[in-house]
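Hi U.,

Before I forget, here's the chain from the pilot set. I'm dumping it here mostly so it's searchable later in email.
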Amino acid sequence: MSTEKKRKKVIGITGGTGCGKTVVMGLLEERFHAGLIIADKIGHELMSPGGANYREIVDFFGEDILDQEGNIDRTKLSGIVFHDKAAMEKLNSISHPNIEKAVIARIEEMQRDEDIPFIALEAALLIECGYKKYLDELWYVYADEETRIRRLMESRGYSEEKSRAVMRNQLREEEYIKNSDRVIDNSGTVEETYEKLRTIIWEASLVKKDLKKDFMEHMDQIINFRNNSGTVSKHMAMKVTDARPGWAKGEMLCQAFHMNPIGSVHGGMLFILADFVAGTAALTRGKVVTTANATAYFLNAAYMPKKLYAEASEIKTGLCLSTYDVVVRDDKDKIISKMVVEFYNLRIDFDDYVNNMLHHETDLYFDKNVFGENKVEAKDFGLLDGKIKEE
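Structure:
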């Protein structure tokens, strides 16, 4: 059997100023754990004193572009090249060869990182500078002209006239589309863009498909799995009623053992219900988790309800921690509790976990993989010296 590791795909992200490439890159990193390479950031590093491009840029454009600390003032430099095509071409001829070398080096470095499922390379000039030869796909981030102008005015303080002038100096929309494999419309909300990215990620096979099916696309399987394979669902009269990525709803059929002596639902049961539903929401992200912390910031008595209902919504998910907001209501729609549930993300293969759970080999699996020969260490929970590692 070959032990050669499969090469990660490299996705180029491009688009005009104000289209929202930064938002897309942030989603790819936070929601899909992509490795990010941002060419503009590399360019800034190379323009710093001691950087590969610093001396040649200063020699050509003069020391008037320097600030008091000797750094290149990018505002002064851009003011020169924006109105001078020859100066812009000279700056690019100095900058881009070294930027390209650094990009290639970082791609190779990320290819060796086992925690990265794919690589996203962002640059405004991916097409113009010939980066397509390093890419498996090129994605064009689109936003309508008025949205781009509004964003530039709000985020950079540009006037409408300057925004339009900047846009005129960039490729036309038809050029971006002609050279790109996919178009991402980023004119709407961040969540709308996330849903579009999620679809594209699966179509492009950038993350592993689970259980020989697209497990993440079949929420009914997750619901059935949680309701038929877990101790909580079997013994605590709880079940999941609905789920989608990063979100889940569930209910608890109240039994006598759920109540305390005064006839209200025991507070501990509220935490178990919240943990169960939030854990389901984590599972929709392909996360195998263990509870780190559950905090109730609102708690009310629930007297003799027939059912309690819980809804969990993702606040944040990262490599080490996942956090969910949970609201618990009674059968009269009264809010009983509001909680935040945090999980450690275990480094356990999701396919193996679900297959073992579905085949009722849970005890054997955890005895072997968590407490036995492949014991999960504290560092795999995101713990370093007893503290949660910052993400």
